[in-house]
Amino acid sequence: MSERYSKLFALSENLYSAGAPVVIAAGALQKDNQTGKVFAQLKIRNIQDKVIKAATVKITPFDTVGKPLGGTVDYQYLDLSAGRDTDFGQKTPVMLKKAAMRSFTVSVSEVIFSDNSIWTASNEAWEPLSAPIAPEKKFTDGELAKQYRAKYGADCKCIFKKEKDLWRCACGAINHDGERNCHSCQREAAALAALNMDELKADRDKRLAAEQAKKTKKIAMIAAPIVVVAIVAAVLISNFVKAQQEEAARLEAYNAAVALVEAGQYDEAIAAFTELGNYKDSAEQINETTYNQAVTLLESENYDEAISIFTKLGNYKDSVNQVEHAINLQTEAALLNDYRIAIDLLNTEPGTKEYYEAVAESRQLLVSLNGYRDSNELLQNFYTDIICALASNPKDNRYYQYDDEGKIIYDGVYTYSYHEDGTVDTFTSRPITYKVVSYDSEGRMLRAEADSMSAYYTYIYDENLGYGWYLDDENLDNNDLENANSYQYSYTQNGYYCNSYIIEMGWNLYAKNQDYYGATEIVFEDESKMTVYFSDSVKDYLNDREAISAIEELIYSLKNTDISPAIEMPLIISITPVVADDIPVLTEQYFQKEDLIRFSALFSVLDETAQKDYYKKAYDADKIALFSTIIPDMDTNLVLQYVDKSEQDNKTNFFAVLSNYMPLSDLKRYVEKYYENNNIARFTILLDCMTREEKQEWLKRAQTDRKTNFVAVLSNELLD
């Protein structure tokens, strides 16, 4: 059977950083030999009492000679319920885009617990803990190992070991310094740590002397009455003692082999039992150990090795059934992996050449899945035609998607939806959706309004040229209308505070509008370059070195985050110098004026107490626009507090905005509550946060429960 996956690299076991609530028990880099994709698999173990519900890891990739490939990959494990000593992550492939990757380092950067408390990593390195040492390996004298178990318990798997801020119990469990007793077996750390080798040896000698005395006494009772045959008796005694010693040696070797099995060292255990030949049940132990080894390999998803071993075991136990079970699991794992790769490909940044290549590859994979999970349903969302407008610079290429009726679905910026009559209903560039509110006599858009902020687009058309353009609410000007020259750009616009300046900036400026603005080329610290455009109101700053330096630092920092859409052709709208001591006063002024851009920019640099005060002021004053701009800075616990408060105060608009920032587990809890309470209004608000699959499950449930209002809402949602 040819192997679908190849292991390229394996991490050291049990990586740990002082103070962490977890250890990275194992990790590997795998390659899919069919697709050429690489992915990491990690096994992470909870080593403290709190239940973990989410964890984030940071992966740093290296090439085949250990050279960094640049950047890191952050991956979050969600919807967990991992108690102490529970592993997670081992069945979740972390897809990696760098095909040249051949090794990696990893750390856990954040852990979120079921009580919503959060652990954040320090700069402490993640290093492997020492491997547990069995008594047989620690003590060269087998009798000394036996004495150790006599002293601390027959179930001892290893020697007590203190390392960093942890200690490993004799039972093998990992405990923290603050725990006096082992959380698993309740052995006391102090007693294990107080091992005195001289005392252990003395106890061993006493035990052996007592055992020998007992044996000698039995021999004397046999020899004393028959003095005549003393010489014969002496020979018999000598043979008896020798036989006893040989038996003791074999028993010691047998017990050592059993200990190796318990420690998971199957190959060594099988070799030890083989050496024992027909002693006791050694032959049966070989089969049993081999079987357990195959089961362990199966549980760790090493399917090929597990199948091979179960096949060699023939009819032993249920090995035949296990082979079939392993093949089924392997097939399911391969399908699941292809499914996850297909979904991951769909998450490629839209509007780029890579996106459409990824979409094409994803479609191929979904077709090959032949109905696995919802692959057929996902295939219905693929459009048949993709058209590219090529530019001299490939980075300026624009990709357009059309459905089979010729209607545009995606224009590189917005995704469109339509009414049944073919007119545009909405267009979306997350997180903003614009709703078309008026049309001309030919069904063309005249005005579209944003759903979550005070913004709109007005469209005009040139009948001679045969095409139209739009003007945003800030740039609408009569002269523009008369001259048929509109500022035709669509960009993400925000305000930022950097180096004593409030900088209002948009990006993704339309190429044909570049000539309207002043421009300068800036050079980032990594020596990459970018042209930055300046509106008329800030052209005076083109020669201001301090302002240009602040802009360079701002754009460079944003480029190195996951900001979407990516920054291209930035346009500086306004620049406001700010004295640091004036920030509190200015923040209040912008709050009162409801200057969203400048208020949100300065809000980000306020201390936590001041930020909480403004959250409350904006909420109490029903300033939903201001409140919306600062929610991204709000921590999860505070989001949930305001969700509850907005529910109690019946502030639906605040609830709707806050719902976008709720953790998934809490979101599900609220959805369940509103369904049970028949609160159709709140339930409908949360539909936007659900996947299509989740909506389908809720529709089935509503149909079963005969909740017609929920059925109607969900049916309409799924028709969109």
How is this structure best described in words?
By secondary structure, the chain is of the alpha+beta class. Among the domains are: 5-128, Immunoglobulin-like; 135-262, no CATH class; 489-577, no CATH class. The chain has 23 helices and 28 strands. Helix 9 (319-346) runs antiparallel to helix 10 (353-369). The radius of gyration is 35 Å and the shape is elongated. The two termini are 45 Å apart.
Structural class: alpha+beta
How much β-strand is present in the residues?
15-25%
Name the poorly predicted regions: 383-398, 462-491
Strand order of the largest sheet: 18-19-20-21-22-23
**How would you characterize the largest beta sheet?**
6 strands, antiparallel
**Strand count:** 28
Percent helix: 40-55%
How many angstroms separate the termini?
45 Å
**Cα-atom Rg, whole angstroms?**
35 Å
Morphology call: elongated
Average pLDDT over all residues: 81
The number of helices is: 23
